[in-house]
Q: What sequence folds into this?
């Protein structure tokens, strides 16, 4: 509270004067309010992964270890549209084969990440679902009230030198109000 | 653990600092508050001020004053955050450099000293869209980047 007051006073010193209260209310979008000047707590983390995600770097494990005690959901997302296309072009049997292969891969990758996270004192749950890599992650974050999202910069598609962050990641980041770590 | 926080004076960069301080507190890590001041910004503001006040002859004076205000303002925010770090028992330092924001941020963030880079999602122009600087630098920073709203 004290820090906030001093910050405002310094910003508006000799400018706002008696109109300080009115100005502070009108421009609250630009000001850090007293209720916001608290250290945030992270209790639940969502980590969506897919075949593009790549390995989680050791620096990120180190960062996540700061949230020991938090619950982490590692979710492998397979794009539903891709499987539908396979089914339409190659038939149901081929689509089913691909779905099973994806499930196996998802299971292995999720378990590998989960076991490393558990070593840092995090409680981990793994999931696999078919859906939209962007919209369903946004919905999950909002509906299940996760505090933090962790995304690979290549989640959803391969990245290039000219586009170092996948468009799927940019779409998700633009739609969320919660913090996101991009690795 | 060393955390680099990019401070541009916006509310969102200060919120980013809060996340960094919370993390450093749990890991006994160090927070480095980093800000880049671009003289071209002061120049552009002075030009607009001169234009709108129909006083272009004073433009150099405006630029000087705006530059001084920019430096004072960022240092004020830094000292507020340093005080908070001190209160929370977090090791913290700050650096203010001059130059192009993108260039200087990439130089510092990719210097190999940091475990994590933390930045606000929006710039000083407000919450209209994700910051253009963020879009430009996030993919080029080597350590993981935390984007805060």
A:
């Amino acid at each position: 509270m004290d820090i906030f007051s001093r910050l405002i006073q310094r910003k508006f010193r000799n400018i706002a004067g008696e109109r300080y209260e009115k100005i502070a209310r009108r421009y609250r979008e630009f000001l850090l309010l007293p209720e916001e000047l608290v250290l945030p707590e992270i209790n639940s983390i969502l980590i969506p992964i897919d075949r593009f995600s790549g390995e989680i770097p050791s620096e990120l494990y180190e960062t996540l270890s700061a949230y020991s005690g938090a619950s982490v959901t590692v979710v492998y997302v397979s794009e539903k549209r891709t499987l539908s296309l396979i089914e339409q072009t190659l038939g149901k049997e081929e689509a089913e084969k691909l779905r099973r292969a994806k499930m196996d891969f998802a299971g292995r990758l999720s378990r590998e990440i989960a076991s490393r996270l558990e070593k840092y004192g995090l409680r981990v749950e793994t999931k696999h679902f078919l859906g939209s890599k962007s919209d369903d992650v946004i919905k999950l974050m909002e509906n299940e009230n996760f505090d933090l999202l962790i995304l690979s910069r290549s989640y959803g598609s391969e990245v290039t030198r000219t586009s170092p962050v996948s468009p799927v990641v940019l779409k998700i980041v633009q739609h969320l109000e919660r913090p996101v770590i991009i690795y | 653990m060393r955390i680099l926080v990019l401070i541009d004076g916006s509310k969102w960069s200060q919120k980013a600092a809060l996340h960094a301080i919370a993390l450093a507190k749990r890991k006994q890590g160090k927070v480095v508050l980093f800000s880049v001041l671009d003289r071209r910004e002061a120049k552009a503001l002075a030009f607009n001020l001169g234009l709108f006040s129909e006083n272009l002859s004073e433009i150099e004076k405006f630029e000087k004053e705006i530059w001084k205000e920019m430096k004072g303002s960022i240092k004020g925010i830094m000292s507020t955050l340093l005080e908070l770090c001190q209160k929370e028992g977090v090791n913290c330092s700050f650096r203010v450099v001059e130059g192009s924001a993108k260039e200087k941020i990439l130089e510092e963030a990719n210097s190999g000293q940091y475990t994590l880079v933390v930045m606000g999602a929006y710039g000083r122009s407000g919450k209209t869209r994700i910051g253009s600087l963020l879009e430009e630098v996030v993919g080029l920073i080597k350590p993981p980047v935390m984007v805060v709203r």
Summary: The first strand of chain A starts at residue 44 and ends at 49.
